[in-house]
Amino acid sequence: MSMHPGATLKLLRLERGLSLRDLASRLGVSSAYLSRVENGVDACPTPPRLSAIARELEVPEQLLLDATQAVSPYVLRYAEAEPQAASLFLEIARRGLGPAGLAELQAFINERFAPLRSGAALPQDVSLAPQLAPGRLLLGFAGGGFAEALELAAGRFDPGGSELGPARFAAAFRQPVTALGRSLAVAHAALPGVAEQASLVTMEPAPPEPGPDGLPVSVLVLLISARPGPQALARITHVARLASRGLALELAQVHQPAEALARIAALEAVR
Questions:
Q1: Within-domain flag for 9
Q2: What is the pLDDT along the chain (271 residues), one digit of tens a residue?
Q3: Residue 210 is part of which domain span?
Q4: What is the model's pTM?
Q5: Residue 45: inside a domain
Q6: Number of domains observed in the structure of the chain
């Protein structure tokens, strides 16, 4: 079953503080069209339109393209110019290379060929694994739904030098948990004075409420940012990208924090 990009686009729009009408006006489309996209009625926007959406939302373009499983126009142009590249892509797909195999292939490319020297600025690091810690992984939670999982996960955040307690962390997640598709949901909160960090819960069995693509939600990711803004939006988009890469499937039946962190890092090694 395919990813549901509309849920990600809606979450990013709301986090950006834009109404449906505001974003539609900036894009030159109707609010009715944008609503249909967000609710999964219409297909995912084309890559050029996704690029325009990324600019308006102030999120890295490639992150959004990856998160919605759209093929970058750069990749399409390259495959057209170099027919052997398309054959290589097909061979990778036929062999069913997973995160570990793709990471190994990426490492070979990095070692064998000259590094990229593009002048384009790279976004700040948004990797999830470094923001997690074994103590902020709750694996195999079987205590109920999102509310219970969120409360327990929020209690594992590090207050740092602040005087915030578990109740204050839990209260910070006032917006509903957003199911992005591919069995993953995310919640984000901005807390000034608290270090950027994340918590993750896997739920067995999954709560009865399915995600927007009909799949049961089995992974919940909580993100804490020091402030709202482009960096927070990039982190949310990256979690959506991990969902599109099958993070929930990778973490199924994993009960050791070290193994969970290793699998997350392997997914993130595929650029």
A1: no
A2: 455 789 999 999 999 999 999 999 999 999 999 999 999 898 888 888 999 999 999 999 888 988 887 565 667 777 778 888 888 888 888 888 876 787 788 778 878 886 655 434 445 688 999 999 999 999 999 877 888 888 888 888 888 766 777 777 777 876 678 999 999 999 998 888 888 999 999 998 888 778 888 889 999 999 999 888 999 999 999 999 999 888 999 998 899 999 999 999 988 887 6
A3: 129-269
A4: 0.82
A5: no
A6: 1
